[in-house]
Amino acid sequence: MNTCLLHIRTTILTVLLGIIPFQSISAEVALPTIIGDHMVLQRDMKAPIWGWADPQESIVVTIGDQTHSTTANADGHWMVKLDPLKVGDPLTMTVAGKNRIEVKDILVGEVWVCSGQSNMQWSVNQSWNADLETASANRPEIRLITVGTPGMQVPLQEFAGKWQLCTPQTVANFSAVGYFFGRQLQDVLNVPIGLIDNAWGGSSCEAWVRRELLKDNEVYAPLLSRWKKTEAQPELRESYQNYEAARLAWRDQAIAAKKSGQLAPPQPARPNNQMVTNHRPGNLFNGRLKPVMPFAIRGAIWYQGEANASRAYQYRELFPLMIHNWRSDWGQGDFPFYWVQLADYKDEKQTPSNSDWAELREAQTMTEDKLPNTGQAVIIDIGEGSDIHPRNKLEVARRLARLALVNDYGMKFASDSPRYKSMQAKDGKIELTFDRVGKGLRTVDKRDAIGFAISDSPGHWHWAKAKIEGKDKIAVWNDEIKEPVAVRYAWSDNPICNVYSQDGLPLTPFRTDDWKGITADNR
Question: Would the pTM of this model clear 0.85, i.e. be above it?
């Protein structure tokens, strides 16, 4: 039989059997990857639905009892916003223009972005109890999608991926913190959960910020100057420009393929070029955030900071700027944003010392006071000295989930780690007072409170004795120091410390002084 004729007959048979969905034999209207079969739409808020079509093409979007109409602009872009939806049976959405697309098995529930660097990217199958966790991961009402686009200086509108039902197979390589967080929410709320993982291991905070926001602040001038020198190197510049052109061409080809019902072509190979990586300012904002904006979400969880520890003072401004940038560009107000404070890591020190990791933790804590609807999961007790990737991701996720369940869903759980409030020096001791103590403070493993250092003048630190006094106070002293002036707690890369709330949340590392840190001048 003629090969061409056989191909035609096979294609006709495939269509008749329903193997190719209806939209694959049509044209023009197309949707981004983030809007597809098995997705979860955020409940109780307007949900943007957008895509591409011919310029001035009329578009009608129907879901449930809603119908919304719009017209594509001169560039072929269009958007509608669905009225708030409630949790219920799976839905089908149709998008009709010159062609008609059906998006099937849509759930309505809670959607969270899971972002940061490798500790967020760290998968379920790399964590403790991976065999048990994956075996029990048959959770069809949890839906997963991963954004794996490269770092770019231009906004990307599309990526290769798809929404998947949570199964032992699909969850294995998904973010462990993200999955455990979502699972905890589902167990308590009993609603579908959508998780968007766009983390990239080793990424720097500045890569997640729109670059234009860094240009007019002297805090970032040295950082941008270093990058401008890198970007001026002819070979790197040419390599990047060629890749950017190829990537944008792939985006256009992928959109055109969707319009014609075809599969997207293979993505261009990413060059070995630091200009497309996870450190260049703006790269990940454009590459891994823009393809999902403005998909409706409840909030974001974040696990990053290791890559910025050497510039911890700069992080005091950079991290809040990043959160503000995300919220502003997403156009969804001050959505909840919760992060994980750096864990304990590296060698334990025999004497009190300075620490860039301690200063980064301090910068993270400061961010709580600068922005609304934020929170911090303290994990100073579950790190690993010899591994920057602690395997106990379950407890990390539980502490994040506490923040969300209390602040966003009205649960009455303990959620915040105790925090330093004030100090008073008296009779050779310093009395510390704390907020967020819940039922009160306690120690673990040993009766004495450990992890405290005390100073009589800048730089003269000594280990201290400490005792919990009442519900929210700790007295700190050293018999050799008659007039102490400052206290630090868990102030090192890998501190030995043991103070918790009675609800099991560790005391937030802190210092009472504001003496210049070792990263203060690093830019």
Answer: yes
